[in-house]
Structure formats: C-alpha cells, structure tokens
Task: structure prediction
Amino acid sequence: MPPVTDRATYQGIELDAETALALLDWQLEMGVDVPLMDVALDRFDLPARAAPPPAAAAPETPPVLTLEGGAPDDLADRLAQAEALAAGADSLEALAAAQEGFDGIELKKGARNFCFSDGNPKARVLILGEAPGDEEDRQGRPFVGRSGQLLDRMFGAIGLARDAVDAERALYIANVLTWRPPGNRDPSADEIAVSLPFLRRHIQLAAPEVIVLMGNISCQAAIGRRGILRLRGQWVQAFDRPALPMTHPAYLLRNPPAKREAWGDLLSLAARLESLSV
Result:
C-alpha cells in the first residue's frame, strides 16, 4: 500500500486516511505484523528440490502429547499447580505475584510483560477482556490500544471510567490470559484452562457486582459458549455473578454499524447497576 496522506489509491480503489489506517489496524489484529518482501513470490514457479534419501524405518513408539516447547504435556499437573497457587493468594497483590511466577503456560516465554489488570479493584463493574494485544504487551496493562480508547469512550458515555476513585463510577479491567499469544492468535483450550484458576480467584478477590464479557474468548472461559453476536445483550451468570456479553471494541472498530447494538448493551448495564443500587 502506498504511503497515506489525505487520500490514497490501492488496487484502483480510492481510500481516505481513516479507512487506510483502519485496514492496517485490522491486519495487525489478524497477526500480520511483519512485511516479508515488496514483490509477491510465485512459489509454484520455484525449482523443485531434490528429494532427501529415505530414512531408515524407526521402531513404533506410542504417541506423546507435547507442548509448543517440546516437553511432554503434563496438563493435569499444571492445572493442580495453578489451583494451589490461586487458592493460596489472599489478596490481589499476592495473586498477581503468584500468577506472574507460574511457569505452566508457554506464552510467558514469548511475551514482553505480564498484564494483570487496570482500573479500580473496588469497582462495581469488572470488564473481562480476552488477552493482551501488542500495545497491552508493551505497557503491561489491558485495553490500552485503539480498542482500549474506544472502550473508555463507550463506558464514559454511561458515567463509568477506569480512573474513577469512586467505586460507584469506576471500572476494573482484567483479561482471561495475562500473557500475549503470538500474532494475537486465539488462546488454545489448554492456555485458557491453566489461566482459569487464577481468573476465578481474581474475581473472588475483586468481588465485582457485575461482569462484562468482552468477546468470544471471554464468553468461552466464563460460560463455556462462543458466538458473541448471538450472546451479546443477554444477561447470564458467570462466576456466580450477573454477566453481560458484549462485542469487543476491536469488532466495533471494524464494523461501526454494530455500535448501535453496543449502545443498547451499555444502557442495559446502566439499568442493571441502578436496579442493584435500590
């Protein structure tokens, strides 16, 4: 794509600066963060490599499940360790230290920073995101990129803010995963499983009145279901608390017309908070 000033043309389509930047952001969220070359390479036109000599037949051995790092998968042991560490934490500070020191998740090896939470832990509302993105990984805080800026504006419209001191008007923000998956890919089932003991304890210690489930991964972890476009706007129970699934701000940036439905969800949240105050 040529450099964008006020307007640019790409493959015969004229783009304004805002649309071009939105397309670049979408590519980043899909994991395309490293350009390889300027000219496309036709790999079907490359000369064929000589076939390697046949290897000697190895004796059959039973298959072994492995992690990304190549070690035998001991998921049950890692789950037990996560449960014990989470149960032993009697404060959010102790829980953060225990989770950051936990080595039972491979994502830790490739992430820059541990991303535990942001906002006021005494808030009535806890927003549960999915996993850190690139900017979150840089800063060690959830929802600080373009999605986070939109999230702040959305909840600010109903009088809630992450930097509010008053718990009535505050937000507390956490993620299902505290380490960034490479390329912003979806977390695996195992990665979610070993994160859940910490997440459950996190919610117990913060004790919010209401949880907002932002996106599919949050719904998968909290209620065992996906399909956010069907789930959004419907109140459910998650971690023994009322929870409201909502479309992720990243989705709203790609699909601006969906902001109308998100506004309806925010009004539903405001009404629920008012009813709980009575």
Remarks:
- The two ends are 55 Å apart (CA to CA).
- Residues 259-277 form the longest helix (19 residues).
